[in-house]
Amino acid sequence: MSDDLLGTFKAILSEEFGVPEDDITKDATFEALGLDSLDVVELTLVLEEKTGVKLEDEELEDVRSVGDAIAKVEEKQG
Amino acid sequence: MTQVVVTGLGIISPAGRGLDDAWNGVLSGRTGAAVDPKLTEMGTPVTLACRVPDFDPDAELGRGSSRRLDRFTHLACIAAREALHHAGLTDGDEETIVHADPDRVGVMIGSGIGGAETWASEYPNYLEKGPKRTSPMFVPKMLSNTAAGTIAIRSHARGPNMTVNTACAAGASAIHLGRDMIRSGAADVFIAGGVEAGITGLSVSAFAQMGALTKNPDPATASRPFDVDRDGFVIGEAAGIVVLESAEHAAARGATRYATVAGAGASADAFHATAPPDDGGGAVLAIRRAVEDSGLALGDIGHLNAHGTSTPLNDAAESKALRTVFGAYTDGIVVTSTKGVTGHTLGAAGAIESIFAIQALRHGLIPPTANLVNQDPEIDLDVVSGEAREVHLQAVLSTSMGFGGQNAALVFLPA
After folding, report:
1. Beta pairing, strands B382-383 & B334-336
2. What is the architecture, at CATH level 2, of domain A3-77?
3. Which candidate in B62, B85, B282, B331 could, as Cys together with B269 as Cys, close a disulfide (CB 3.0–4.6 Å)?
4. Above 0.85 for ipTM, yes or no?
């Protein structure tokens, strides 16, 4: 699992969503970080700008944690 | 009839931040107008605006909350927090109501536009990037009822929660309706007021195209209500929120009372989308209804915080309306328009001006109309200019007129 991607998530979640950086680990669920379903969709839009990868609604269904999202992005990056 | 009193005041405006700062700002008569860098960058035909100074929503509300909310909701939350704290309903910087039953606290907020900045930024994004890149926050940020809803979320007020739109009279209409809801028994307390944050390239361009905005490029003289050289308003942004409470409820918890909402009147011009009738038409009815509702005599009203937008049409029509209602008693009414300082804050105006009228009543001090140098001979009113004037006041009036011909008037008495 890429440390670069974790860094990207840390940057987005702390700068754009105001989540304390220390809380952002691969195991942290978005719910625990204070993000609701609207925030997660918004997150995918910012993520696309930073990485070029767009996670679609249906791909988010089983994404709960930062690690789940990173795995999806890696899968799509091939 | 249940008496409804004002027990808390909160304001964030171009005149200043917080009640004391804003009050001192209007007393100083220094205009809040400035060339707006964002408007200049966008190349709008008018670039003057009255912004809330030094406002950083991320620092005030936290990045996580602020990014989910439009600027008009940011301003509303700040003013509501101050008003609740001022009313002694919250502890310290907390926003949760702990000194009243939150289920009996309602929210009534007026806004003319709602999330103007969200519309302005998201629509180009939709056009450029397409439907699948549209922000899921667009709807909750933009809806004009979000300010009222968010105040409830943050304060836990679970009474009736509503939004009223009478354009530039919305802040006054909210206080009117909040009072009436308390009288109806629907709640003991209402968080009521108005908010607007509509300084966008689109809205400024459109107001300019209407000829509503001043073409005067000098910030120091642009917003000049009642002056013979006035030629339009300067757009402003603000939030003004008051805590309204039944006198019984206020007494039971030992709350400090700042004023009584003694009279409220509303009317329509039934005339034109944006222009008032020359004779002040509907404004006459609203003012008359407010005074009648208060049970006061015409001679009791000693001060008017006028709508006074600095447009040629409004100020002249308002002057005629006042004289029509008050006749010879008009000469005993000391008038000001605080829009010389704040600009026209649209849906917030009726609320922040109610707060200034209440402050005038409390302190016996009427702020000057900033930038008024040569009073228009057609404005046959005693308007304060230059310095604030000391006047012992028995009762005060605030008037607001919205596009659509929607008028509101409020009468306040000492508590």
Report:
1. parallel
2. Orthogonal Bundle (1.10)
3. B282
4. yes
